[in-house]
Design goal:
heterodimer; A: 178 residues; mainly beta; OB fold (Dihydrolipoamide Acetyltransferase, E2P); eight-stranded antiparallel beta barrel; 0% helix; B: 508 residues; alpha+beta; Rossmann fold; Dna Ligase, domain 1; D-amino Acid Aminotransferase, Chain A, domain 1; 3 domains; five-stranded parallel beta sheet; 17 helices; globular
């Protein structure tokens, strides 16, 4: 099984070719290749989505899932949690890999949507305003808490769809960032 | 003693109260809103009644519907937990009028302590220590200005009906006073429908130390040591411990005796908490009194060995306190942290959703008070507290190590939690040394402690390998998502397989 993979952790991205050899080399031991490096690991599935891996005697427990709303299967990215860290892994069949950038990177116009139902308490930006990454855009009240939604990247606020005091559903468009 | 108690709450605290009742051989009655039908407290209770739709104003805050459920079930008493109606004197009075015992303090004490200005005023009259400031609501900006100048900057503008950090503004200099005054008033109006405010001197680098008190209806009142709750984010406690690293036997006795005097002043009975600010010189000032069980009560229980919920029930039933002050012994150290469905990597944004996987910590000295289970959907409508992990150990150093271990074992997937944040707090040298104050968490966050160390190449390989194995095992299926099959069918199949006679009457 061969794939092209992109591994994202925070702003960092790692791009590699991956191959998992079909057969065990010993009981429970699998061989796999990342780039040009071939490694072996003792692999067990603990419960669907949870894998216990022994690599050079060191144990790793990885939990593999999908982001809510993404389709099942390798076409959408996988979320992998190892200990305290989260990774996003995109897989492409090497024959169909396009070099046109990733679906995850925040490029081009971007709609900021409400992550959950709530109420807009405060709009912190105006249309036309330039914002920096992590700058607060608006304050939304949900689960009895007021929370600031921040810019995922630097850019210009093209539109503000909602005014203060409005109730919003999850997924409602709030701000368009260009 | 009561035979049946209704718990007018949800989540972990409802389960906590029911556990005490079950050990006392008292039947438990749950109430639930539409989104809580599958919640743990409903599954755990001996009886459960629907009280309305999801918004708490239509369910958990509806006095009439809760009393209806109490009458229907024949409950003789109601435990309010914390939050919702726990500090609402109208609710306590309505219970009394309906002939149902309210498990809490007398209405008069709730009313006195519910008003921050009235309680301040009463304490000042009695010569008890309060933070210097106004002893009544301030009617005009001119008055605010004058008193601020008298007590000296920095000052806090506070909502009289305040709580949870709402309607609270710190003012460093007179130039900032007017806008802080207006903002605090409008926030208080929105949050509590009451815009009255007052002023207090701002104590620099204070600790938040509170005293647990317990009293019966026959005039006995004792204190059960302190809890250090200085670790707060946005004025919400997140880590609590007992004993406080800043309190020695002498200070504990003085704070405890003051708390008992305050309780007597209010004519208090049942469990209550007197909150103090403790300044770096060891002076303490009354902050407020909470007339209910606290979220963080387990640390006191672990260190004193006294079950506060059972004592609350016994006191409400009219029993005499089984403990004298000299019987109260503190042993070892306990620390608790509150596990919330929120994402520390994204500005602590709430993270409701389905708990896809849950592995709870266990082993020596660990207590977990939880209101959740694997497969459950965390609703959006309520406070995102999932559970509390409290540990007990022989001393504080061992307790910190134990809490670190517990959090390392705690795995919650499918939603984000603040567990990674706690692991970092517990490693902080100031926390380890017990150098705490209420600004600690903000400083830690500002210093970027949330930056994580880069992973090893091997861990990245493990992440990639796990995905490959997953695709190989499950291809296009997505086993980590909720099962699409019908739960009724499965239950039917199980019933056919086992063909065991159903036990009548549930759990008792």
């Amino acid at each position: 099984m061969k794939f092209h993979a992109r591994l994202h952790r925070g702003p960092k991205t790692l791009e590699q070719e991956l191959e998992l050899m079909a057969h065990e080399t010993a009981h429970g031991v699998r061989r796999f290749r990342i780039g040009n490096q071939t490694t072996e690991a003792h692999c067990e599935e603990i419960t669907p989505g949870v894998y216990s891996l022994l690599m050079n005697g060191r144990p790793y427990e990885a939990y593999v899932s999908k982001r809510p709303g993404d389709a099942p299967g390798p076409a959408s990215p996988y979320v992998v949690v190892v200990g305290l860290r989260r990774y996003l892994v995109e897989l492409r069949d090497p024959r169909r890999w396009r070099r046109t950038g990733s679906s995850i990177e925040a490029e081009g116009p971007q709609e900021i949507v409400a992550p959950m139902p709530g109420r807009i308490v405060k709009v912190l930006v105006t249309e036309g305003q330039e914002v920096t990454r992590d700058q607060g855009l608006l304050v939304i009240e949900a689960m009895k808490m007021q929370n600031e939604l921040r810019a995922p990247r630097a850019g210009r606020v093209e539109r503000v769809y909602m005014e203060e005091g409005r109730g919003v559903e999850a997924g409602a468009r709030l701000i368009r960032l260009v | 003693m009561f035979r049946k108690i209704l718990i007018a709450n949800r989540g972990e605290i409802a389960v906590r109260v029911m556990r005490a009742c079950r050990e006392m051989n008292i039947h438990t009655v749950a109430v639930f809103s539409d989104v809580d039908r599958k919640s743990l407290h409903v599954r755990y209770a001996d009886e459960a009644y629907r009280i309305g739709p999801a918004p708490s104003t239509e369910s958990y805050l509806r006095i009439d519907r809760i009393l209806d459920a109490a009458r229907r079930s024949g409950a003789e008493a109601i435990h309010p937990g914390y939050g919702f109606l726990a500090e609402n004197p109208d609710f306590a009075r309505a219970c009394e009028d309906a002939g149902i015992v309210f498990i809490g303090p007398p209405v008069s004490a709730m009313e006195l302590m519910g008003s921050k200005t009235a309680s301040r005023h009463a304490l000042i009259q009695a010569g008890l220590p309060v933070v210097p400031g106004a002893d009544r609501n301030l009617e005009s900006f001119e008055e605010v200005q004058r008193i601020a100048a008298e007590i000296g900057y920095p000052v806090m503008v506070k909502a009289s009906a305040g709580g949870g950090g709402k309607g609270l503004r710190m003012v460093r200099a007179e130039a900032e006073l007017e806008s802080a005054y207006r903002n605090a008033r409008s926030e208080a109006q929105n949050a509590f429908n009451d815009s009255s405010i007052y002023l207090e001197k701002y104590i620099e680098h204070p600790r938040h130390v509170e005293i647990q008190i317990l009293g019966d209806r026959h005039g006995h009142l004792i204190y059960l040591g302190e809890r250090e709750c200085s670790l707060q984010r946005r004025h919400q406690k997140v880590v609590e411990e007992c004993p406080s690293p800043a309190v020695n036997d002498d200070l504990r006795r003085r704070m405890g005796e003051t708390a008992v005097r305050i309780g007597k002043l209010a004519g208090y009975w049942n469990a209550g908490t007197v909150e103090f600010l403790l300044d770096p010189q060891g002076n303490f000032y009354f902050l407020e009194m909470n007339t209910r069980l606290q979220v963080e009560h387990p640390v006191t229980e672990l260190v004193t060995g006294i079950d506060l919920v059972k004592e609350q029930v016994r006191i409400a039933a009219g029993e005499t306190l089984a403990w004298r002050q000299e019987d109260v012994r503190m042993r070892g150290a306990a620390i608790e942290c509150r596990i919330y469905a929120e994402d520390p990597a994204n500005n602590f944004f709430p993270s409701p959703g389905r708990i896809a996987r849950l592995q709870a910590p266990a082993g020596p000295g660990i207590r977990r008070d939880s209101g959740v289970y694997e497969g459950w959907q965390v609703p959006l409508e309520y406070d995102p507290l999932l559970s509390k992990i409290a540990v007990w150990a022989a001393d504080r150093t061992e307790a910190i190590a134990r809490l670190r271990r517990a959090l390392g074992e705690y795995e919650i997937q499918g939603i984000r939690t603040n567990i990674p944040f706690f692991r970092r707090v517990l490693e902080h040298p100031d926390f380890v040394a017990g150098r705490l104050d209420t600004g600690f968490i903000d400083r830690v966050l500002a210093a970027g402690l949330m930056e994580e160390e880069p992973p090893s190449e091997e861990e990245e390989s493990a992440a990639l390998l796990a995905v490959l194995l997953h695709v190989e095992q499950h291809g296009d299926t997505a086993p980590a998502r909720p099962a699409a099959s019908n739960g009724w069918k499965q239950a039917g199949r199980r019933a056919l397989l086992h063909r065991q006679p159903q036990r009548a009457g549930g759990r008792s």
